């Protein structure tokens, strides 16, 4: 039966090997074939630069927090308008 490996576990195993761990010992410990390790390592090294790329359209946490506060303020104003029957603006 084939094992399913989650991405975090794969990354952890690959990083252990990249930090100087003996690949054969690492594979034995995790019951993994060395060929599979090297496949994961190749994929990891080919794609590791993507972690530093910012996806178009993504917002930073501070931008999201500011937008969230603005939306809360707007909801509050609209709620007051609905309950009082008078426009706030």
UniProtKB/TrEMBL annotation:
Pfam families: HTH_Tnp_1. It comes from the Bacteria. InterPro entries: Transposase_8, Trp_repressor/repl_initiator. This is Transposase. It comes from Pseudodesulfovibrio portus. The lineage of its organism: Bacteria, Pseudomonadati, Thermodesulfobacteriota, Desulfovibrionia, Desulfovibrionales.
